[in-house]
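User: Quick sanity check before I run a bigger batch. Here is a single chain. Can you write out its predicted 3D structure?
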Amino acid sequence: MTVDFRLRDVLKLVQSINVRRHCHETTMNKEHLRFHLQEALEELSRTVAQCENDPEFSEAELLIGMQHLYHHLNTAWNTRNLGTERIEQATDQDFNVWSLFPNDLPPMSV
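Assistant: Done. Predicted structure follows.
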């Protein structure tokens, strides 16, 4: 019996294993998650529109937009399993930590 593995099939399998390894079996705070994903989507849309329509669009404006975008994406991931009460009691330090790139989110790779 010959097993025919294609690289694409192997990559899908590895990706599936990685996804399961990094997902928790807890309930996500979908209201909070949705808020941050919506904010990120709005910032991305605004930045794309500026880039397309404003000939004066600068790297400084891109930096500000990207900081805002990543803040919401990172916070969405980092707080996905926190309860509303915990989020409402957030300190400035929590805000800063939640804004960091997640240390439990493996990068995509090929």
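The two ends are 28 Å apart (CA to CA).

User: Great, the batch can go ahead then.
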